[in-house]
């Protein structure tokens, strides 16, 4: 049986970052990913880095560290990750008072600037100014999640980390300790296993008898490729209903429903917006659904029509461009903080998940996690430890 210091399950951006940092400090690392071609939240992430959005000492510190990491990451990893700073335009519905929305953002480390519809149109010419009463804007980080993940994996391999395409089907368990994992063809032993499976985390761990209080939405969006640069900003609604949905769906009252088969926890929401990458690829979305199952039984044509109809109000010139509907699972914790730490009541197994907002936390927390694994105490990580779900 092949043996490693760490097995990391899931090679999205969080798993790749954690595997790289663990290998960098000297651990032997195996990174396992079930899909040769990614179809995950990393693949369909907007790539936004909200390093202005700290709301406490801890989150402000992580935002600052995240920005610093991204500024140096391309040079450190030896690959262009297309990191840049652009204007985030947060649109305000024409029936909403702009001052009311602005007040909601006073809690953040950097308060966005309030714009008139005309000023917002100056930043983003594709905006339909008649559909908004104003907008908020702030400088926002942005990178290419696909390139960043690939860069992390390549750099991990230079530190002798191993990357393999294989689905983990079970854990190797002895009493209250996890000793490794099994794939359909091979068993791997490890001193520690790190679960970075994003939106699959809760179901994956629950099926292995390891309940953890982490959740997922099914995000639905449209991907457009082969286009020339058009969007100059990252456009999202100032009143992002996804955050309210996540908070409501993860209450003590509703937590047990996530263990029931095929339940819709709450009604879906739609946050119209979009971003364009430097290669021309555009992502437009998004619908978010809270379903207890990881399988999405949705009418793709109806969802695509809903997205396009909403975007005709905000970004009309993009709404009818030929594109393809996609969906992916997006992990969240309900506290707007990621879940990082040991699984309750077990040793040898850890979780690194729930980075829905903001993604800027992932690199500094991967670095902190690796340093803690090497024996350095970290007071921030203790605040992110996973909690068990409410008993049924």
From TrEMBL:
Q: What class of enzyme is it?
A: oxidoreductase
Its source organism is Geitlerinema calcuttense NRMC-F 0142
Q: Which GO terms describe its molecular function?
A: oxidoreductase activity
Cite the Gene3D superfamilies for this sequence. D-Amino Acid Oxidase, subunit A, domain 2, FAD/NAD(P)-binding domain
> InterPro entries annotated for this entry?
FAD-dep_OxRdtase, FAD/NAD-bd_sf
Query: Does this entry carry the keyword Nucleotide-binding?
Result: no
Q: Which domain of life is it from?
A: Bacteria
Keywords, in A-Z order: Oxidoreductase
What is the protein's name according to its record? FAD-binding oxidoreductase
What SUPFAM superfamilies has UniProt attached to this entry? FAD/NAD(P)-binding domain
As recorded in UniProt, its EC number(s) are 1.-.-.-
């Amino acid at each position: 049986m092949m043996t490693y210091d760490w097995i990391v399950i899931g090679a999205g951006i969080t798993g790749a970052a954690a595997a790289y940092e663990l290998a960098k400090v000297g651990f032997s690392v195996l990174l396992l990913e079930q899909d040769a071609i990614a179809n995950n939240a990393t693949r369909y992430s907007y790539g936004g880095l909200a390093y202005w959005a700290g709301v406490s000492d801890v989150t402000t510190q992580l935002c600052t560290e995240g920005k610093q990491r991204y500024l140096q990451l391309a040079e450190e990893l030896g690959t262009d990750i297309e990191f840049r700073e652009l204007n985030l335009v947060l649109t305000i519905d024409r029936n909403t008072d702009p001052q009311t929305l602005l007040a909601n953002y006073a809690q953040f480390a950097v308060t966005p600037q309030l714009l008139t519809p005309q000023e917002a149109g100056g930043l983003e010419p594709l905006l339909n100014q008649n559909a908004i009463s104003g907008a908020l804007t702030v400088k926002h980080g942005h990178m290419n999640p696909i390139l960043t993940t690939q860069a992390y994996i390549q750099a991990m391999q230079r530190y002798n980390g191993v990357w393999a395409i294989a689905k983990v089907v079970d854990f190797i368990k002895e009493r209250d300790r996890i000793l490794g994992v099994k794939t359909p063809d091979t068993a791997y032993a490890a001193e520690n296993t790190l679960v970075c499976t994003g939106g699959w985390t809760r179901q994956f761990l629950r099926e292995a008898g390891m309940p953890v209080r982490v959740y997922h939405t099914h995000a639905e969006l449209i991907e457009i490729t082969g286009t020339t640069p058009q969007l100059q900003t990252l456009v999202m609604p100032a009143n992002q209903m996804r955050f309210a949905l996540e908070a409501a769906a993860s209450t003590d009252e509703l937590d047990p429903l996530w263990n029931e088969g095929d339940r819709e926890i709450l009604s879906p929401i739609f946050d119209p917006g979009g971003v364009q990458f430097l290669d021309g690829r555009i992502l437009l979305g998004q619908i978010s659904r809270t379903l207890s199952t990881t399988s999405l039984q949705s009418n793709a044509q109806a969802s695509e029509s809903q997205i396009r109809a909403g975007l005709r109000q905000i970004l009309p010139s993009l709404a009818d461009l030929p594109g393809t509907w996609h969906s992916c699972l997006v992990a969240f914790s309900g506290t707007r903080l990621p879940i990082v730490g040991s699984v309750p009541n077990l040793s040898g197994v850890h979780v690194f998940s729930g980075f829905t907002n903001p993604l800027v936390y992932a690199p500094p927390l991967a670095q902190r996690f690796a340093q803690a694994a090497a024996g350095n105490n970290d007071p921030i990580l203790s605040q992110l430890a996973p909690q068990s779900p409410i008993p049924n």
